[in-house]
Amino acid sequence: MFQLKTDPLTGKSEWIVIEEEEGGNEKQTTPKALLATTSYLDMLNDTRRNTAYRLAIDKTVTKPCHVLDIGHEYILNSGGTGLLSMMAARAMGLYDSKWSSTSNGLVTACESYLPMVKLMKKVLRANGMDGRICVINKRSDELEVGLDIPSRANVLVSEILDSELLGEGLIPTLQHAHDKLLVENPQTVPYRATTYGQLVECTYLRELHDLVHREAEASDGIHLSPSGMTGLLGIKQQQFALHCDAIKDEIKLLSEPFKVFDFDFWRRPESSREIELQVRATDDGTVHAIISWWSLQLDSEGTIFYSTAPSWICCPSDVKELKTNSLCSWNWCDHWKQTVWFTPRSGLPVFKDEKAQLHAVHSETSISYKFKTYLDNKEAAQLDLQTRDCQIVLSPERNALYGDGAWRSLMLNAIEKALCQIVHPLCLVADDSIFLVIAVARLSNTSHVIPLFPGIGKKGANYLQTVAATNGYTMDRIQFLKKKDLLSNLQDSHQRKINLFVAEPFYYGNDSVLPWQNLRFWKERTLLDPILSKDMLIMPCRGLLKACAMCLPDLWQSRRCLKEIEGFDHSIVNTTLGGCGGLPVTEESPFLPFFIWQCGETKILSEMATVMEFDFSEPMSSCSGKAQVQFRESGVCHGFVFWIDWVMDMDGSTILSTGPDKRHWKQGVKLLNEPVEVGNGGFSSIEIETFFDPSNGELSLLHAFLTNQR
User: Is 91 buried (19+), middle (13-18) or exposed (0-12) by CB count in 10 A?
Assistant: First the structure.
């Protein structure tokens, strides 16, 4: 099997070979990095989920002696570590010492991801379950009765759910299972899923999607989303996963929770449905978004439930599906969040006791909403057709950043300062920043701009042409060249050399990378050194790697090493899945990218110190740095948070921070193997030493806790 791996510093991808295990011999060929940053560990640490599934499986799965005449088979899609398979095997007695290969019960687990298959087999072996569970390295829709499995199954146990419920292919998977793999009227765990919604007002949620009005408020002459072209730049109309508890104090609830769709697992689902909802407003306000979640009824009797509802929806009496026995004691987890559907434009005004007409639709993979008030859908569709070749879809965080007046002002001031030092700017925009291209072209009539646009490519070129007149520049000052052509064209001694090199940095589609993996522009600067003028200005000119110690109990708990889960030993997965807590001395948890402000309970314990500095005016090279960071608060330290502050000008007066108090950027988190008590006469500081490897863009860390020296 091949696994695609991308180098963050070059953007180039390569296929890594992952070999099969043969003859029972262990081959250490599964790269840890392929699994260490996934959500498997977080999911397996979700005790509510584990307990709910165990209770439901114990209740649903009968012992083989009850079905000796027909036999039993269990199919688990997306098997993971085999936890649910082992629960099913135990429930029917296959875990007993008296088990023999002639037993009528059968458990089949299918998992398409080979690294996870290999890990699953190790877990099964560690629990004495190898041979009792048949593991098939295929997608469930690739299975055939008579070829892969001997007969149709009586029971389906599955967990193919994302935060929106449908995004991992729940509907087509169930359809194929009912058509090809299951008996008529099978038993299933879960039995049913129900989605809910709630109307909310929230300034932050408005910022995530309303670029048009926020840009108008900024009033700085840059028009990323010009009048009449609102579909040109913005977020996709879909539900976005978000930890809504992180903003609960900023949310004004404008309705009670309302049920949207039911999905029965025990029967073949429809591919799509529509429903008209009348949602009564509970207060005056502006609906900026619909917050959604789902509830699982895991057993057919309706006694075991699991919900992804936010903390303010804790088993409400008016929502029948969420009962006091629904295991609703809240614990933070990252694998399932709430979802947010943004209301078009700047929101929908509502008044108390009036009803908003809401049209809900689900496809095979998503749920969408539309308020009846908005009657300009034909116009929007027309615009989409006209602008499809130049339409750029942003993440909500990037969309919010482009509408942020303070960020725009900082960037424009830095660009103006640079342009004042250059008579005829030949500017290279090294990343995917349409903002910087427009800003340079608009602020200097003599400038020529070369955008690399490694991610948005031709769409970026078409976009710039579409907005040129509105932003006061002409396309003859924008030149699009591929990097190899750029080198050949400008290396001639008679050609002008680049005297302004800029980046935000922003790379399209790289929303889940570590801060130092955005140093791709530094790599480009190094490769393009022959065509850079000696007096070239670069923006940002430096990067300050910052760090602080933090209390992160929820995040640490979700990533902690596994021991026993519902009676099954999972300790063998810890190193592979990048756990923290209980790892061998020679192992450590990986750096992980997170929006710290969404990580449940958090507290900054130390000062924010500069650990290392990157000098972008020089070619990329290895870097190292050391800092002693003083603790300012007492508490339990679970790890360190790292980010980069971008120094935009040579005198260091314009600095863009991306720290843990900033919502638009992810930080890098290094969790400790074990939490450490700090302050209160104990450890007074921490010494942090970091090393940056330019060959792979990786950061390594050494640290030591220090006491007061007397």
Answer: buried
Task: Give CA–CA dist 419/11, Å, rounded.
Answer: 29
Look up 159 and say whether it is catalytic.
yes
| Contact call for residues 435 and 403 (beta carbons, < 8 A) | no
For helices 434-443 and 457-471, give the axis angle rounded to 10 degrees: 30
User: From CA 543, how far away is CA 613, in angstroms rounded?
Assistant: 6
* Whether pLDDT at 639 is above 60: yes
* DSSP H helices in 92-235: 114-126, 170-176, 203-209, 211-218
How far is Cα 51 from Cα 305, in angstroms, rounded to an integer?
10
- Reference 72, options 98, 108, 37; nearest CA is 108
CA atoms of 79 and 87, how far apart (whole Å) = 12
- For residues 135 and 94, the answer to whether their CB atoms sit within 8 Å is no
Q: Are 539 and 414 in contact (CB under 8 A)?
A: yes
Q: What is the DSSP string of 567-581?
A: TEE-GGGHHHHT-BS
Residue 411 · residue 649 · CB < 8 Å? no
Please identify which of the residues 21, 168, 256, 587 carries the catalytic annotation.
Answer: 168
CA quadruple 625, 628, 630, 634: dihedral positive or negative?
A: positive
Instruction: Judge whether residue 27 has pLDDT over 70.
Output: no
> Per residue in 262-316, pLDDT tens?
999 999 999 999 999 999 999 999 999 999 999 999 999 999 999 999 999 965 4
pLDDT in tens, 455-509: 999 999 999 999 999 999 999 999 998 877 888 777 765 678 999 999 999 999 8
State the DSSP H helix or E strand holding residue 287, giving kind and residue range, or none if neither. Answer: strand 285-287
pLDDT digits (tens, 9 = 90+) for 124-160: 999 999 888 888 898 889 989 999 888 888 899 989 8
Cα distance between residue 614 and residue 603, in whole Å = 28
Which pLDDT score, from 0 to 100, does residue 386 have?
52
Catalytic annotation, pick one of 73, 159, 397, 504: 159
Compute the CA torsion angle 181, 182, 187, 190 (nearest 10 deg): 30
Residue 168 appears among annotated catalytic residues: yes
- Structure tokens, 707: 């006491």
pLDDT at 708: 77
- Contact status, residue 671 vs residue 552, Cβ threshold 8 Å: yes
Element (H or E) spanning 643, and its range? Answer: strand 635-647
Residues facing 341 on adjacent strands: 290
Q: Taking a C-beta distance cutoff of 8 angstroms, is the pair 610, 620 a contact? A: no
Average pLDDT for 18-25: 47
Per-residue pLDDT band at 115 (split at 50, 70, 90): confident
